Amino acid sequence: MLNIAVFGSGRGTNAQSILENIDRGSIRACVSIVISNKSDAGIFTIADARGIPRQYLNPSDYGTEEEYTDTLISVLDKYDIGLIILAGYLKKIPSTIISRYRNRIMNIHPALLPAFGGAGMYGMRVHQSVIEYGVKITGVTVHFVDEEYDRGPIIVQEAVEVFDNDTPHTLAKRVLSVEHKLYSKAIALFAEHRLRVDNRRVYIDK
Fold this sequence. Notes:
By secondary structure, the chain is α/β, with parallel strands linked by helices. It has two domains: 1-101, Formyl transferase, N-terminal domain (Rossmann fold, 3-Layer(aba) Sandwich); 107-206, Formyl transferase, N-terminal domain (Rossmann fold). The chain has six helices and nine strands. The strands form two sheets. A seven-stranded mixed beta sheet has the order 3-2-1-4-5-6-7, covered by helices on one side. A two-stranded antiparallel ribbon has the order 8-9. Helix 1 (13-23) links the parallel strand 1 and strand 2 (29-36). Helix 5 (124-133) packs across helix 6 (168-191). The longest helix has 24 residues, at 168-191. It is globular and about 50 Å long.
């Protein structure tokens, strides 16, 4: 069984969707630990309701990044984590963790990368930028995490049409429904050992 660690800083809607898909048997995996940099994160409420272990780890509480990284590694090792899922996690992952879990850390972005990505581009800011730029198509991207924001190998993408009367909130609602579907699809493919990475290209084996 694949053990998953979910990192989140907010409400945890993507985490909830992933857990529901695990319940349905669509993903052959187990969420073994939920980690947040915020002690009052909504994602902890989801974990508590299901009896999932949770860990508050804020990099700012540590004197050095090395101390934080060592603590994080010990937690991940304790639960024998095979895949890390970032679900609205607003802290940069240390390079040591990225190297240790190369192509085993996933993130989701509410646009079609490499457009509208990078540092500071998350949540409603992305949808606001999409509308201001005037693009006709946005979407969702699930990718592996590397050392640069939103630049890792792309696993799956799906387009979402931008309507003339869209606001950031109406667009966000439609994009979020695709996020819930696409993230679980990518995790299921990983759990089935069907993802193969060659340089920047991710191949999906039949």
